[in-house]
Design a protein that fits this description.
By secondary structure, this protein is α+β, with helices and mostly antiparallel strands. It is 26% helix and 29% strand. It contains five helices and 13 strands. It has a six-stranded mixed sheet, covered by helices on one side. A three-stranded antiparallel sheet has the order 1-2-3, covered by helices on one side. The chain is globular, with a radius of gyration of 17 Å.
């Protein structure tokens, strides 16, 4: 029912809708995936990604202990989805700490990196924006990052600060907290210019 509703919203509003993260079932398993789903303006599911890196971490916050592996199974491969904005590179939350995933997406042609997340208030304050800007700069891609914010029923606190970052690492738009919309204009020519003047993907040496 949730996926059907998402498809209807994409169709009704004529938009590309990326929903994530949300749980999806695994056949014959007591575990589930945490997934990102991409719907086109016709309501068709154009692609999905299962989160690869699971958040098994102790954090100095009200929640304390996070063990995603007790409930979730990891995905196995990076995912690109073609769109009118260029190939979309999918990721989820904790993936942000693993630059090799984003480099694979960039090498495969990603122009926009999507990061739906629930970064904690503690880790978010310290690392959220620096990591997002680094992923944008090193891969010369736009980064669109939507992060939960506020205090949740369990006492868990998330950082918010949803934002859009350009390939030069500039924060184009952000929302610190609360519900709302973050909008920014994409300039595809900037990506092409950076690829020409600073071809880091060509210069990178695999050691």
């Amino acid at each position: 029912p949730i996926q059907q509703q998402l498809a209807e919203w994409a169709r009704d509003y004529g938009i590309w809708l990326v929903a994530g993260a949300m749980p999806t079932t695994i056949a014959d398993s007591d575990h589930i995936h945490t997934s990102s789903l991409v719907f086109d303006p016709s309501g068709e599911l154009r692609g999905h990604y299962h989160k690869i890196h699971l958040f098994d971490v102790d954090v100095a916050d009200n929640h304390g202990r996070y063990r995603e592996s007790e409930t979730f199974s990891p995905g196995e491969s990076p995912v690109l989805v073609d769109s009118p904005f260029g190939p979309l590179g999918l990721s989820i939350c904790y993936d942000l700490r693993f630059p090799e995933l984003y480099r694979q997406l960039a090498r495969a042609g990603a122009r926009v990196l999507l990061v739906p997340a629930a970064f904690t208030a503690v880790t978010g304050e310290a690392h959220w924006e620096p990591l997002l800007r680094a992923r944008a700069i090193e891969n010369q891609c736009y980064v669109v990052a939507a992060n939960q914010g506020g205090t949740h029923e369990t006492g868990r606190q998330t950082w918010g600060h949803s934002m859009v970052i350009d390939p030069w690492g500039r924060v184009l738009a952000s929302k610190e907290s609360g519900r709302g919309t973050v909008l920014a204009k994409m300039e595809p020519g900037l990506i092409d210019e950076l690829h020409r003047t600073m071809p880091v993907l060509q210069h990178a040496r695999l050691l």
